[in-house]
Q: What sequence folds into this?
């Protein structure tokens, strides 16, 4: 895959699939000029952070927290070790943008991390890369070698006296490690179970040292912000939603893939860029921000623009920008069953409400899908979700609950039909045709 | 019991972390041990733990927590197919069924000749390429329609 389309792009400008990821290509399109300028002109740490604040860059991993503000939490004058960590543990179902950033533009992440390290006085960094994308990990290691040889990372960057070294850490299959404190535990060589917060990583992070963790796309955006200026970056998006964003469009569209568009772009435009609905079928629902985000029915979705505020107003979350498109061939019970299985599988087992609750959610949705649903099952599911939410250390419990609540809220009739008639409202052969598996090659 | 080649690779991983944080290399070291032996018998986990100066149980905790470690023997090729929702919408589940039918085995089973183990997998972060299959944790195969699956199986024979 590649980045298939864009409107006023930044991150994907000048990319040419597998042919333009090397250092020389990145430098040719203006790469490392931001880092070089900051080091040569000795721009103050505060000025770098202010520029990021002005851009209103919001964390691209899912939470949408303002990046500049996060950076300002780091104790800059703290004399000991400090770390910057990149979260490339991209495992939120529907999300596949960081993979393309690391594959086609890895040096933007390296430069962004070096600038971040400078601004926060960190001497060392790690990029935690999702286990399933081994080839991407290998490429990132190669990019690190190139950057080290050119003096963009390592000791005494470009003769500035500032040192920053950066390494890649390869994950090995655990969704929970996308949670930032679980990710830190994982780098420390432990099972990835989230930590209690506070203390937050800015005061007690990797190896107990002050640490800032940002998503891959967040770091990749930093050089562009420094070159353009924070205000211009903000204007490229819309108020309170600075810049462009990569959206991973999957599911029932003609051209699944990544699309870079300004925040605030209408959903309808994005859908059109992705080739429209597969076989011209009708949109039924959309999960706009990765599988943990509440599902949004078609009519509401068609009125949304793709930014944090609009999607939030529609009762969901922009999350990681993973747009899962479902057409009328989708059985919503089956869709929810698969998501519930995922959270049940991936709960780390640390908190009882999540460990037990995700198992209940899956088993009850499974029996409804299997024609064994009971008349009070929808109430039971509601009760389990309220007993999980807000009672766990991390957000996985909430992430497992929100799909259940939103699917039932918006498609209650379909669940009720399943329970009453012990079968699906959408005939099985229609569902099967929707995936296009046997017809695509015909 | 790990080969010197594996130990050399593990040393390169250890060097990424502060000198007093060797344990940070445990994930990579277990992956290297698994690559060498095909799966992770207790002895391999213990060797890794001893080499890194950590308790064997701590290494076992890691090996049993992350999905891509195999604590039981698998076939020469472990074929994992993603069936999570975004993939399902584009044929991930169908691809899994097709593989089962072609191989005559179910998930978590191995063909009688020991060649292929089939696994159902969670999100690989490649939903736009659905259906997606990974061979031995390393090689990702995209857009696996029936024709591509047939080709892959012929190649693995």
A:
């Amino acid at each position: 895959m590649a980045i298939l389309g864009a409107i006023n792009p930044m991150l994907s400008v000048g990319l040419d699939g597998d042919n333009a990821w090397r250092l020389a290509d990145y430098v040719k399109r203006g790469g490392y000029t931001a880092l070089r300028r900051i080091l040569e002109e000795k721009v103050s740490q505060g000025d770098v952070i202010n520029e990021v604040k002005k851009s209103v860059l919001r964390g691209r991993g899912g939470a949408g927290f303002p990046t500049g503000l996060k950076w300002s939490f780091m104790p800059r004058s703290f004399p000991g070790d400090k770390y910057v960590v990149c979260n490339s543990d991209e495992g939120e179902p529907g999300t596949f943008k960081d993979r393309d950033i690391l594959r086609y533009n890895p040096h933007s992440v390296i430069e962004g991390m070096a600038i971040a390290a400078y601004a926060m006085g960190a001497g060392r960094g790690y990029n935690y890369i999702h286990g399933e994308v081994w080839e991407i990990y290998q490429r990132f290691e190669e990019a690190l070698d190139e950057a080290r040889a050119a003096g963009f990372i390592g000791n005494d960057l470009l003769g500035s006296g500032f040192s920053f070294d950066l390494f890649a850490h390869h994950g090995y299959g655990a969704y929970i490690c996308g949670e930032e404190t679980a990710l830190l535990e994982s780098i420390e060589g432990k099972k990835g179970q989230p930590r209690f917060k506070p203390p937050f990583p800015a005061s007690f992070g990797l190896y107990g040292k002050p640490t800032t963790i940002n998503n891959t796309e967040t770091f990749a955006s930093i050089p562009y912000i420094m070159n353009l200026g924070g205000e211009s970056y903000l204007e490229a998006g819309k108020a309170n939603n600075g810049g462009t964003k990569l959206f991973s469009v999957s599911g029932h569209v003609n051209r699944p893939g990544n699309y870079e568009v300004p925040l605030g772009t209408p959903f309808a435009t994005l859908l059109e860029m992705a080739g429209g609905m597969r076989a011209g079928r009708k949109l039924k629902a959309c999960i706009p921000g990765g599988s943990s985000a509440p599902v949004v029915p078609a009519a509401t979705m068609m009125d949304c623009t793709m930014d944090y505020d609009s999607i939030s107003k529609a009762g969901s979350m922009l999350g990681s920008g993973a747009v899962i498109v479902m057409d009328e061939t989708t059985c919503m019970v089956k869709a929810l069953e698969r998501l519930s299985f995922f959270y049940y599988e991936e709960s780390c087992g640390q908190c009882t409400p999540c460990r037990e609750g995700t198992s209940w959610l899956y088993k009850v949705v499974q029996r409804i899908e299997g024609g064994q649903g009971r008349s009070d099952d929808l109430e039971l599911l509601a009760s389990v979700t309220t007993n999980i939410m807000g009672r766990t250390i991390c957000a996985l419990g909430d992430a497992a609950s929100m799909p259940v609540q939103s699917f039932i809220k918006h498609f209650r009739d379909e669940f009720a039909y399943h329970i009453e008639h012990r079968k699906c409202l959408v005939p099985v052969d229609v569902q099967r045709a929707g995936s296009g598996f046997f017809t695509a090659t015909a | 019991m790990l080969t010197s080649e594996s130990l050399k690779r593990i040393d390169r991983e250890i060097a990424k972390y502060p000198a007093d944080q060797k344990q940070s290399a445990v994930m990579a070291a277990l992956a290297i041990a698994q690559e060498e032996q095909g799966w992770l018998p207790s002895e391999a986990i213990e060797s890794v733990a001893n080499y890194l100066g950590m308790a064997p149980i701590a290494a076992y905790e890691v090996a049993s927590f992350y999905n891509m470690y195999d604590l039981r023997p698998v076939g020469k090729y472990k074929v994992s197919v993603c069936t999570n929702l975004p993939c399902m919408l584009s044929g991930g589940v169908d691809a899994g069924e097709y593989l089962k039918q072609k191989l005559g085995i179910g998930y978590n089973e191995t063909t009688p000749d020991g060649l292929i183990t089939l696994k159902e997998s969670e999100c690989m972060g490649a939903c736009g390429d659905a259906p997606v299959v990974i061979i031995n944790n390393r090689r990702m195969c995209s857009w696996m329609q029936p024709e591509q699956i047939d080709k892959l199986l012929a190649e693995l024979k």
Chain A has 19 helices and twelve strands. Chain A has a mean pLDDT of 95.
